């Protein structure tokens, strides 16, 4: 059973950081100093599978709107719906607010996940931490 909760304590936040370190710093070789910027102004989430920490994500307000970031799922929990549960939980919360723009920078391989929730690709391919990305923006259902 997958549960997604907003993080409200240091124990869960440390779990989220450990997941991000494993996925981004170790697996994808992202610079560690870039991995933890903006954490203090972000709203963080932890996904668990049968009580075990499995994935994390966050969002923050920027001058361009709400930016969803740092979606990471541990390898042993991939392809089980954890990332979808994170996206769905965060969107469910954000759509209750009057935020005009909701966007993210998606790694190319993850774009189909975000497209199924209504995100569309904007602009040209770019690189963050030597990984190809596209900006994607959420289109609210009419």
List the keywords.
142 residues, 7 strands, 7-stranded mixed β-sheet, alpha+beta, 39% strand, Aminopeptidase
Architecture overview:
The chain has 142 residues and is an alpha+beta fold. The protein has a single domain (2-138), classed as Aminopeptidase (3-Layer(aba) Sandwich). It has 4 helices and 7 strands, in the order βααβββαβαββ. It has helices at 10-27, 32-35, 82-94, 111-115; strands at 2-6, 43-49, 52-62, 65-73, 102-107, 119-128, 131-138. Strands 1-2-3-4-5-7-6 form a 7-stranded mixed sheet, with helices on both faces. It is globular. The relative contact order is 0.15. The mean pLDDT is 94.
In short:
The protein has 142 residues and is α+β, with helices and mostly antiparallel strands.
Helix content: 25-40%
Query: Overall pLDDT, averaged?
Result: 94
User: Judging by the overall fold, what is the CATH architecture?
Assistant: 3-Layer(aba) Sandwich
Q: Please give the count of helices.
A: 4
Radius of gyration: 14 Å
Subunit arrangement of the protein: single chain
Give the CATH class: Alpha Beta
- What count of domains describes the coordinates? 1
């Amino acid at each position: 059973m997958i549960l997604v909760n907003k993080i409200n304590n240091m124990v869960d936040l440390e779990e989220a950081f450990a997941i991000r370190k494993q996925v981004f710093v170790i697996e994808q070789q992202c610079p560690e100093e870039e991995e933890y910027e903006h954490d203090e102004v972000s709203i963080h989430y932890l996904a668990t599978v049968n009580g075990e920490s499995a994935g994390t994500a966050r969002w923050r307000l920027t001058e361009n709107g709400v930016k969803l970031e740092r979606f990471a799922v541990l390898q042993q929990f991939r392809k089980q719906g954890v990332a979808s549960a994170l996206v769905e939980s965060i969107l469910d919360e954000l759509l209750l607010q009057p935020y005009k723009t909701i966007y993210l920078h998606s790694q190319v391989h993850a774009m189909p996940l975000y497209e199924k929730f209504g995100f569309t690709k904007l602009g040209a391919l770019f690189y963050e931490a030597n990984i190809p990305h596209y900006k994607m923006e959420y289109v609210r259902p009419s």
